[in-house]
Amino acid sequence: MNLTGNSLEKEIRIILDIYEKYKDELGNFKFAEPATEQEISAWEKTNGITLPESYKDWLRFSNGSTIDMCTAEFFGLEKITKHSKYKTCLPDEYVWIGNMIGDGEALLFSRLTGKIVRHDHGNYREYDSMKEILLEVIDIL
Questions:
Q1: Cβ-based neighbours of 71, under 8 Å, separated by 6 or more
Q2: Could you tell me where the DSSP H helices lie in 23-92?
């Protein structure tokens, strides 16, 4: 795993270290193979959507992942496409990229601002990057 130059390297390594240390006590962790630059570019072109750079950095590590069963799920490119086709109660500016906590809380990003957003039953909370989301995941773990 080459994380050199990845803006999320520190947080990814902390999550992997927590998993290694507590894997018998924590729920299931799954990390898909990384997305390639070509896959990310093709997805953006096909969908007419520019992904936030920090989410691309997560995809460069894992193109779809589950952390501690339901603490966090970060969609890979295929699942983002699948979920973006669903008609939901979310405004059109948002793209669904995952789930948090396992209680119906959606992880989104704004097409307008590029910010990562947690949507919890009508309440929106903005984050500047995936780094902030990963720090919250680390706190939960």
A1: 27, 100, 101, 102, 137, 140, 141
A2: 37-47, 53-61, 77-84
For the chain, how long is the longest CA-to-CA vector? Answer: 42
Nearest residue to 105 (alpha-carbon basis) of 123, 91, 86, 88: 123
Q: Is the pLDDT confidence value at 122 over 70?
A: yes
Domains of the chain, CATH where assigned: 9-140 (3.40.1580.10)
CA-based nearest residue to 72, from 97, 51, 98: 98
Say if residues 125 and 134 touch (Cβ distance below 8 Å).
no
- The pLDDT of residue 88 is above 80: no
The residue to which tokens 């966090």 are assigned = 72
The one-letter amino acid code at 128 reads: D
Q: How far is CA 132 from the centre of its chain?
A: 11
Beta sheet of 116-120, edge-to-edge order: 30-31, 65-67, 72-74, 94-100, 105-110, 116-120, 123-127
* Residue 121 amino acid letter: H
Mean pLDDT of 96-102: 89
Q: Is the pTM of this model over 0.85?
A: yes
pLDDT of residue 45: 96
